[in-house]
Amino acid sequence: xxEPARPEVEPYWSAAGxxxxxxxxxxxxxxxxxxxxxxxxxxxxxxxxFVENLAMNVVVFAGVSQMVALEIWPxxxxxxxxxxxxxxxxxxxxxxxxxxxxxxxxxxxAPAWQTVPLLYYLTDTSWLVSMRYRAEGGxxxxxxxxxxxxxxxxxxxxxxxxxxxxxxxxxxxxxxxxLVMPVFFVVxxxxxxxxxxRAVGWAIAGFVALATERLLPGWWxxxxxxxxxxxxxxxxxxxxxxxx
Amino acid sequence: MxxxxxxxxxxxxxxxWITIAAMAxxxxxxxxxxxxxxxxxxxxxxxxxxxxxxxxxxIAATVLPLVLRDGVxxxxxxxVALAVMAASRNDFLAVVxxxxxxxxxxxxxx
Lengths: 244, 110
What we know:
The complex is a heterodimer. By secondary structure, chain A is mostly helical.
């Protein structure tokens, strides 16, 4: 699996890529449906109108941060509550900054009308699907687009249904669906495997995240752990390539 | 009418929309920010290696604390899914088996 000098292929679009992107995204369907229902129901409980709930899912489109914000959604707004909700959203979504940075290799030469929607609707899942496919040598941008579109369509449909069902949405834990997303993420490690050196970076990421979780509140452990692991993993990989 | 009265009136009628717009702006700034930063940074082999290592690092940093927080059933789900994926290279099958394992583990009286 040592391929230090794979010839760089220009990104392109193909009709077949749409099916590949859809196929690679399918394993998260159950979790996407359930999480969408839960966030839609949270919108209803928080007292959003149908249009407000739909608009939030169209323009914010970041489920975990919406869930956290809707948990503390106020009945009357002050500039202080607006600032608090915005800050919480930014902190929960700060990992998207890292995903966005690594999407640059994919999108650098694409025109803005493709780049802007793909970045606007960037999610952990479409990012991981895209990076896994890229790590295996794929360069078809239709794969990114299909994964993104699949998630947008399912998400908007399910948040609408969840809003209408409201309190009747049950507990995801019953069927183990709360674990689909973490399990899918871990499964994605297998195609990203590139020898034990890369796993050293992952281990550093995991342990730094665990330590950070004990020291800092909220979601900082993802950012601190990921940056530590990527820097360590990158330095190790660079040393390997120099040694070859 | 003072400035604070003005802001109170506009927040009362448009607070939800102002908050949604602010949340959307913050999120898009993050989703575009990394990409825009990389346009200004010259790509070196070292930086490329770090970005290549990033997806796995994000996964490890996200999942390890969450799984340990969740306990034995989550560790079991992740272990089963990893084993099935390594053996079959089928991500769909791996997720189904991992979730199947956790459903069984939670149903059993421990």
